[in-house]
Amino acid sequence: MNSERKFSSKLGFVLASVGSAVGLGNIWMFPYRVGAYGGAVFIMIYLVFIGIFASMGLSGEFMLGRLTGTGPIGAYEKALLSRGKKGGQFVGWIPLVGSLAIAIGYAVIIGWVASYTAGSVTGSLFKVGGEAYFAKLTGTNFSSVPWNAIVIGITLVALIFGVNNGVEKASKIMMPAFFVFFLIIAIRVAFLPGAIEGYKYLLIPDWSYLLNPKTWAMAMGQAFFTLSITGSGMVIYGSYLKKDENIVKLSLTTGLLDTVASFVSAFAIIPAVFAFGMKPNAGPPLMFMTMPKIFEQMPLTGLFSTVFFVSVLFAGITSLINMLEAVTEACESRVKLNRKVSSIIACGLALLVGLFIEKEANLGAWMDAVTIYLTPFGAFLGAVFIYWILDKKQMENEMNLGREKALPNWFFNVAKYVYVPAALIVVVVNVVFVAFGLGSIS
Ligand code: PHE
Asked: How many angstroms separate the CA atoms of 253 and 230, rounded?
């Protein structure tokens, strides 16, 4: 059913993949982590992980999708069948549920972003200030539900319109807009007196972090999460990639653009934080409390705040589209429902479950459970199925399609013996870190 469904061009594919990759991880995690773990030292280590994870992890997922022409359930089934064994589809359920679960929580947070966008436009955000606005939005019953519904509604429209007219088109509009808007903010912020302290935080290397295992763990978890490696969403985008495209090259392009997005975010946010004498932080406090305080003190408060939150909204929706595309395609290919009904089921599920976790405390617990345990585990399963289980000849052939020169043997060895263990390490380190109260890495 889906074999004829393809992204129309390289650009369309890359922007959809970048759309998935660029999200909250780039905006509210990367900027803080860079400074907190050694500045330029963190950046160097991070780039190494991005190189490995993009060229081997991301391309592996794209390859699996393109080879099998479907999402995780069918892809894992076929991977195991290539070894003459049945039952892979049961494993494929795990990353698929991971996609749905992360979408549920993500949509609630992006709903908050939508509310902040509206609050920036109308000025109501600045009447009460970020803290009170956030408390009301996330602390009273169902007050964020309409926003959650709006965000899921937009995602639904993109999904119903299909891969070319919905997913691809949305990414082609939202991703360039994200880059341009954040660049404008970064340039504006550079002129704030005191911004220099922010650049120092981001760029001056603190070598004492180089041999600290926590630096490596944080850089690794960051690279993994930001590339959307979950064994599910990127598999399905890969299934819409034409056979004559060079997968490794497109994966590296995606990794590069995602990294650019992280840097632009860091330069838009951190220097402003320092210019106004605030403490750098991460996650919801940064986005929903610190940032409004910054805009409040800048001229053109409403304008910059709107531009900022609209960009975050775009980054979030394109990630959400990817997560829910995985669920939609599963309904289409496994249950044989049409696209419209499938999209409605995927989005409806996300909205329904979201009702129960919309309060901040519940949401935090949900997202922790999903991003610390479930999605990394799904990603690890994907890595094993791609580089250890799938028939080696088939895997290598598919990876080499669209390339002038075949990939060298060492590439597949590094993937098998370095990348796959790395995916396992992400799972294990998360468990250990949480057990010892060190915070999660993804
Ligand atoms: N990469 C996205 C981010 O950095 C998160 C994401 C994970 C998106 C899994 C899709 C699938 O926020």
From this structure: 19
pTM: 0.97
Q: DSSP for 196-229, please give it.
A: HHHHHHHHS--GGGTT-HHHHHHHHHHHHHHTT-
**Residue 226 Cβ contacting ligand 1 at under 6 Å:** yes
| Residue closest to 317 by CA, chosen among 129, 167, 180, 441 | 167
> Strand, helix or coil at 39?
coil
First CA to last CA across the chain, in angstroms? 35
Task: State mean pLDDT over 37-48.
Answer: 98
- Cα of 220 vs centre of ligand 1, distance in Å, is 15
* 169 Cα: distance to centroid of ligand 1 (angstroms): 19
pLDDT tier at 141, thresholds 50, 70, 90: confident
Q: Do residues 426 and 383 lie in contact, with contact meaning Cβ atoms separated by under 8 Å?
A: no
Among the atoms of ligand 1, which is closest to the Cα of residue 25?
4
Pocket test for ligand 1, best of 228, 317, 320, 325 (most atoms within 8 A of CB): 228
Compute φ and ψ for 437, nearest 5 degrees: 70, 30
Provide the token pair at 21. Answer: 């990759």
Q: Distance (Å, rounded) from C-alpha 133 to C-alpha 139?
A: 10
Residue nearest to atom 3 of ligand 1 (CA): 23
Q: Which pLDDT tens digit goes with each residue over 24-34?
A: 999 999 999 99
